[in-house]
Amino acid sequence: MKIYPIISYSVDSNTCVLEDKETKAVCIIDPGFSQRHLERIISAIEKINGNLKFIINTHCHYDHIANCEHFKGVKIFMQKNDGEAVLEQNDEKILSYFFGMKVPKINGIEFVDDNEIINLGKTTLKILHTSGHTSGSISVYEEKTKSLFSGDLVFSGGVGRTDLASGNFEQLKDSIDKILKLNFKTLYPGHGDIGNYKDVKNIRKFL
Ligand SMILES: [Zn+2]
Q1: I want to staple 131 with a disulfide (CB 3.0 to 4.6 A). Which of 116, 138, 171, 200 is the partner?
Q2: How far apart are the CA of 94 and the centre of ligand 1, in A?
Q3: Per-residue pLDDT averaged across 9-22, rounded?
Q4: Average pLDDT over residues 44-52
Q5: Residue 119, number of CB atoms within 10 A of its CB
Q6: Please, what are the domains in the chain?
């Protein structure tokens, strides 16, 4: 698998485009919300001539999900708690208002849960339910490259907020302990720079 990280220039989330080299199957993790960010994603997929199979949203926040509207007919994986918030257009949880925007209308959501495996061509992606930032937050682990996509659970220099709608600091700490049991090398967080296992271990000490 090859990873194309699209690090946000502003308030979008980071995005990762994953490509299964053998089959050219491609998926997007957290497509962000701005037009400029969307164009960067589309151009990354075009450059590799990839075949977009699905999107994974790590959680329901507007800055991570709104660009899903542009990928009509593409399957979108979310954990149930956050997926339902999107289907119900629950803006207390989605936070569109926070960005001065309308609640996005997103179809094609399929629920996934802890330990579920999603296949991208011949690549195996493992879903972990890592609540704390939101109750339905997930992380994605790919074993061969030892990559962890953490959404807003943890960044290379801190952790996600837990004071919003369904946030819970105790759950966030437990979720960080859960990912520290994995043998990941590289951390691809929802915001900020790419990190590694040691960064997360250090952050956990101060929580
Ligand atoms: Zn968030």
Answers
A1: 171
A2: 9
A3: 97
A4: 97
A5: 11
A6: 2-205 (3.60.15.10)
